[in-house]
Design goal:
By secondary structure, the chain is α/β, with parallel strands linked by helices. The protein contains eight helices and seven strands; from the N terminus they run H-E-E-H-H-E-E-E-H-E-H-E-H-H-H. The chain has a five-stranded parallel β-sheet with strand order 2-1-3-6-7, sandwiched between helices. Strands 4-5 form a two-stranded antiparallel sheet. The radius of gyration is 22 Å and the shape is globular.
Length: 261
């Protein structure tokens, strides 16, 4: 009799632990990252910061899903339904960091060059395009696309964060030019309008580059002035976390790795 009771108790404890484990697994938040090749780059010798930022988080408490894709702009990330894929699994308590700006600069039209381009600014201006197959497309401003990401993430109960684009390896009078006149500025304005965290990744990393100097920074860029190697990617990942820590009350902070004393 006593053996039966012990067996029953053991089975109850076993099944309760499974249920609790499943509950914990389901409620574990995910940090989604969306962007371009500066965020995710699978080419040999290169790296995007989104592929290394998990090293800075406690992944026993939060999952990291880097959904960035090389060559995409805000417009094409949506057009190719990559954002829909993120939305399909996005749940309350999740986070989304978005960093675009490197592929939006061309004039939007139906040419190969214009496929990724967006309208400049944050307004509601639009441009109507008709593709060769008759498909109609309405192109919006950079700010409009960012607002779409933000609003739809919020509707899912997630917390969106906007980051400015990483700086390029370009120099003028010993300084790295900032993106505070165009895409970085519009990213900041959109974050302010939507009342969400803005991480000035462009500024934070540019200041690091200036301390390092052109010769050292050159070693972080294998072939061009835009795409970093893994070392450069880790520098940018650290900059994202530094920007996050500037807002100490932000809920994502509690998932960062604790410094070992």
């Amino acid at each position: 009799m006593q053996q039966n009771r012990l067996l029953t108790s053991a089975l109850v404890i076993f099944f309760v632990s499974i249920l609790l484990s499943g509950f914990t697994q389901k409620t574990k938040p995910t940090l989604y990252i969306i962007g371009d090749s500066t965020v995710r780059n699978t080419n040999e010798g290169y790296g995007g910061w989104g592929s290394y930022i998990a090293e800075l988080f406690d992944t026993t408490k939060i999952s990291v899903s880097n959904q960035a894709m090389a060559g995409r702009s805000t417009r094409t990330f949506i057009k190719e339904k990559r954002w829909d894929k993120v939305l399909s699994t996005l749940k309350p308590g999740d986070f989304v960091i978005m960093q675009f700006g490197h592929n939006e600069g061309s004039v939007p039209d139906t040419s190969k060059a214009g496929y990724r381009g967006v309208l400049r600014g944050t307004g509601d201006e639009t441009k109507e395009l008709t593709w060769e197959d008759g498909e109609k497309e309405t192109v919006h401003t950079y700010g409009w696309y960012l607002r779409k990401f933000v609003k739809e993430a919020k509707e899912k109960g997630a917390t969106p964060i906007i980051a400015s684009m990483i700086p390029r390896n370009q120099w003028k009078d010993g300084k790295v030019p900032r993106a505070d006149k165009d895409f970085g500025k519009w990213a900041m304005e959109t974050a302010q309008t939507e009342n969400i965290l803005f991480i000035d990744l462009n500024k934070i990393t540019a200041e690091k580059y200036e301390k390092m100097g052109p010769e050292k920074v050159k070693t972080l860029f294998p072939t061009d002035h835009t795409h970093t190697n893994p070392e450069g990617a880790r520098i940018n990942a650290a900059s994202v976390v530094e920007g996050l820590k500037m807002n100490k009350k932000h809920p994502l902070n509690k998932y960062l790795k604790k410094k070992k004393s």
